[in-house]
Every structure is written in C-alpha cells, then in structure tokens.
Amino acid sequence: MSHLLFHDGQFYRDDKVIAGANSRALRYGDGLFETMVWRFGTIPLFQFHVERLFHGMQLLGFEKPVDWNDAWIAERIRQLVHRNGHEPLARIRLMILRGDGSPFDHRNNYPHLIMQSWSLPQHTREWQQEGLKTGLHETARKAIDGIANCKTNNYLPSLLAAREAASRHWDDALLLNTAGRICESSIANCFVFMENKWLTPPLGEGPVAGTVRRHILETAETNGVPVEEKPLNAGDLFNADAMVLTNAVQGLRWVSSFGKKHFSNEPSKILFDALVRPLMV
C-alpha cells in the first residue's frame, strides 16, 4: 500500500523516485537521518533529535535553511502523520541528502529533506517479557572519529551486523569499534549492569549519540539509578548481570543472551520503569 512522503516542501507518493544516478547521497552516502516516534501528537525527546540533526548537518557542511527550526520540523511531521492516517503511534524517518555532484564539489550544500511515516503497534513501546538474543559481529568495525556519534547514511557496519544477526537467528548483533571494544548494536546503544551499576560506552568510543541513551544519562542520578560511562570489552559482557539496548523507537529492550551468556531481566525492568516507561505512555 502506497503512502505519502514529504520531500523538499511537497507531499508525494512514497514510490516516487527521489535520488538519481548522480546523487551524492546514492553514490557516497552523503547525508544524515533521524528516527523518531510520533505519540499522540508529541515526539518524545524531540529536542534531542533536533539538536543531533542540526549538529550533524553542521559537521557535514550542510547549510541549514533559515526557516528550519523545531516548530517547522514538528509541523511537517504532524502533517505527514495526519495525511497518512498513522495516528496515534507512528515511526518517523527523517533524511537529509546532498544533491548531485562529485566528491570535490564544495558548492552543493543544500540539505534535501525527506520524511516518511509508518504505523507503530502499541506493544512496540511496552515492556517485553521476552528478551533479545544477541551475539558479536566482528567483520566490520565502527570508526572512532568526528562523525561517529552522528546518524550518517554511511551505515555499512551496522547493516552487516544486522545481516549476520538475521543469518544466525539473533535479534541483534553488537559491533566493536576500531580499538576492539564494544561500541553499540546494529540499531541501538547498549548498557550493561555490573557491580550494581549500569555502564555504557562513552561517546569517545564511537557510538551514536542516542536520544534515549542521553535521557538515561541525564536523568539517572535524580532518580537514584547508578549509571556511568565506561569503555567495555567483549569479555566484560560475560561478567555482567544484565544488558539492555536502547533506541528511540523501541525505547529499552532487555537482552536475554549474548552468545552463551544469559542475563537476568530484573535490573533491566527497574531501569525501564524508572527512566524509560515515562517516555512510552
């Protein structure tokens, strides 16, 4: 079934061809994306999404149009969700693409904007009784560099990790960074529970600057939840009591296994109830 997408100020059927053969986005992955949730007329952690998007655009040299602000983006998302009939819950994908040109074309900095929406089942946002089965992807590694924390269209390491997860009947796979330490999963940030506190790789280890990750770090102390940023080796996961994966769409999912290691869900449920459930309801 065809739906509408938003592209550079207009709504089109989502089967419309957006990028041609000369597109820098198609040729080189030159762009960014955001994944958000529309929930009963609001977007949880919307300010975090907008800040990350605009920061990424600045890093990649896009020229932000003067009318692009929080309210402008939110209104376009509202119109898209309404036109597609995707209330009350929807997944939103916002993409920024550069136009045609060669790698050395420094003049083409206009951000072409695409937005899509899909209906999102309510159970996606609830505590899941069944945990995720995960493993370690070792073919591709995540670079530790100046754009590692952005959601760029250069998605190959995560794509390869997701493909391996599917082929091995895992729900997700963890990625290493180029230093050989745990970075993130193919679609989420990771937290592990060790010695009565939650640990997550710092941004200097190369993970995406996730919005739920940021929310947990900024609200943990006031809610009495011990959380710390710390580099993690794969071996640390085998000494952990619990592990969770976090992203904007699913919020928080507890991990039941990493390879042959099995985890409890009790610390994860406490973390979910204290910090993440308020984003879901």
Just name the CATH architecture of the largest domain.
Alpha-Beta Barrel
CATH class assignment of the largest domain: Alpha Beta
Multimerization status: single chain
Helix and strand composition category: alpha+beta
**What number of domains?**
2
The fraction of residues in strands falls at 25-35%
Roughly how many Å apart are the termini? 29 Å
What would you say this structure looks like, in words?
The protein folds into 2 domains: 4-120, D-amino Acid Aminotransferase, Chain A, domain 1, CATH 3.30.470; 132-280, D-amino Acid Aminotransferase, Chain A, domain 2 (Alpha-Beta Barrel), CATH 3.20.10. By secondary structure, it is of the alpha+beta class. The longest helix has 15 residues, at 70-84. The strands form 2 sheets. Strands 6, 7, 8, 9, 10, 11, 12, 13 and 14 form a 9-stranded mixed beta sheet that branches. Helix 5 links the parallel strand 10 and strand 11. The chain is built from 7 helices and 14 strands. The chain is globular and about 50 Å long.
